[in-house]
Amino acid sequence: MIELYHIWKQYQKPAWALSDVTLHIKRGQFCLITGPSGSGKTTLLKTIFRELVPTHGQIIIAGKNILRIPGSRIYQLRRQMGIVFQDFRLIFHRRVFENVGVPLQVLGLPHKEIRRRVFNTLRMVNLHHKIWEFPASLSYGEQQRVAIARAVVNNPRILLADEPTGNLDTELAFEIIGLFKEINRQGATVIICTHDKEIIRRFGERVVFLHSGKLIGQEAA
Amino acid sequence: MTIICLSFLIIGVFLSLSNNLQFLARQLSDNLAVVFFLDKGLSPSDTEAVIQTIRSSSHISRVHYVTPQEALRRFRQRFPQLQEVVAGLGLNPFPASVEAVLKDKAAESAEILNLMDSLRRVKGVEDIQFNRDWVERMRSLSRLARAVGFFLGGILVLASFFIISNVIRLNVLARKNEVEILRLVGASNVFIRIPFFMEGIALGVLGSLLSLALIYGVIRVFPVYLGSSLGALQEIVNFRYLSLGQSLGLVAGGAVMGFLGSLSSLARFLKI
Predict the structure, then answer these.
(1) Which residues of B are less than 8 Å from A91 in CB distance?
(2) Which of A119, B48, B150, B217 is the 20 to 30 A CA-CA neighbour of B74?
C-alpha cells in the first residue's frame, strides 16, 4: 500500500537526512520506525505525509505517485491519513470538541454528524467527559489522546504518529500504543516513529531501523 | 477602521457636494429660457414675424410673448420697494420681449450658439439674454468636486487597502499555528482562506457603512449649524443625499477593497 523507492532527502549540503531509503508497508500493517535522534524518522514520516518533498525518489500510496499531486490538491491525500505529532499541535483557544472535529469540519459534514463522530471517538480514547474542556486544562496524556482522537475521527486508511509517547511515563505510553493497536485492528495501516525500546519489544510486529538517514535493517514478527 | 471609514467619508462628502452642483446645473438648464428683447416701436405684424422666426427653430420648445406692460407688472411684483423709481420715470422703460424655452439637451449642443447668432441678426431683435455659461460653470464645478473627492478619497482608499492588508497579515501570523493544523488535517486552500477573505470584506463593508452613516449625519447637521453662515454660497456648498446607486457603489467599493487587501496579504503571507 505504501511504497517508497530510493528516497533521498537533503536539507542542507552536504548532509543527507535520508539516503536511498526503499520501504514497502502493506495495507493494515502495524509498523514501528526506530532509530536514534537525527536518524531521519520524522523526515521519513513527513515525506509520506507530503509535508516534505524528497530530493530524489518516488512514493506510491495506493497505486498513486503522491509526488505528482499538485500542491493545491494535497489536501485530498491528507484526508485519507491521520497524523499525531510529538508536540500534539492542538488549537488551544478551541475546546476539545472543536479540536477533534476539525478534520470533519473541513470535509463539510453536518454539525449533527460531527457531534456524533467526535463523541464516539472521544469515548474510544476515554475522554468523552472532557468534551467541552479547553486543551490547557488537560493533562499531558489527555492532550495526547485528544491529538489521537483528532487523527482517527475521520477513519483514515493510514495513521502516522511521530514519537507519540515521547514524554509519557511507561504505563501511559503503553496505553497510548494500545490505542493505536486498536485502531490498527479496525483496519488502518499504522506507522509509528519511536525510540522507546520497551514499546518496540512489546508491540513490534514490524520494525524498521534507521541510522543517519539510512535504512539499516527490518524485523517482522 | 477609522482610516477605512475616513476614506469613504471623503469620497461620499465630495460625491454629495457634486450631486448638489449637478442638481443646480440641471435646475438652471431646465429653466433655461432665452429672452429676446425686441426693438421699441415694432409693429404688431413685425412682432408676429419675429415670434414665428423664433418658434420655427428646431431647438425651441415653446415661446411666450411678453408685452412691455406685462414686464412692468412683473417688475413691480418682484421689486415692490422700487415701484416709486419706475413711477418717477413717467413712462414704461421695459421693452417687449419673447421668452423662449429650449428643448431638452439643446443648451448643451454646440449648434445653439450658431442659432443665437443667427437670431440676433433677425430684424426687430435688439438683444438676447442667454445664461448658458452659468450652466457650464456649474457643471464644471460639479465635475471638479467629484474629481477632488475621488482623488483625495482614492489616496485614502489606497491607504485603507494597505491597512486591511496589514490587519489580515497580523491575523494570519496570529493564527499561523491554527492554519498549519488545518492544512495538515486536509483543509483545502479555499477553506483556509475564506475566513480571512470574509474578515477583509467585513472590514471594508463596515468602514463604508459607517462612512455612509456619517455622511447622512453631515447632511442633517450641516444646514443647521453652518449653512446660514455661508450666505449666498449656501446654495452651492450644500450636501445632497447620495443616490441608492452611489450608496451601494460605496459599500461595494468597501467590499472589493477589503477583498483585494486580504488577497494581497494572503498571497504574500499565507503560503499553502
Answers:
(1) 177-178, 181
(2) B48
ipTM of the modeled complex: 0.86
Q: How does pLDDT run across B64-110, given as a tens digit for each residue? A: 888 888 888 888 888 888 878 877 877 888 888 888 887 766 666 66
Within 8 A of B191 by CB-CB distance, chain A residues are: 106
Among 3.10.20.600, 3.40.50.300, 3.30.70.3040, 3.40.50.970, name the CATH number for the domain at B33-130: 3.30.70.3040
Q: Give the three-state DSSP class for A111.
A: helix
CB contact under 8 A, A89 and B184: yes
pTM of the model: 0.66
Chain B residues touching chain A at CB-CB below 8 Å = 177-178, 180-189, 191, 272
Q: Flag if B185 and A107 touch (Cβ within 8 Å).
A: no
Per residue in B209-241, pLDDT tens? 888 888 888 777 766 665 556 555 555 566 677
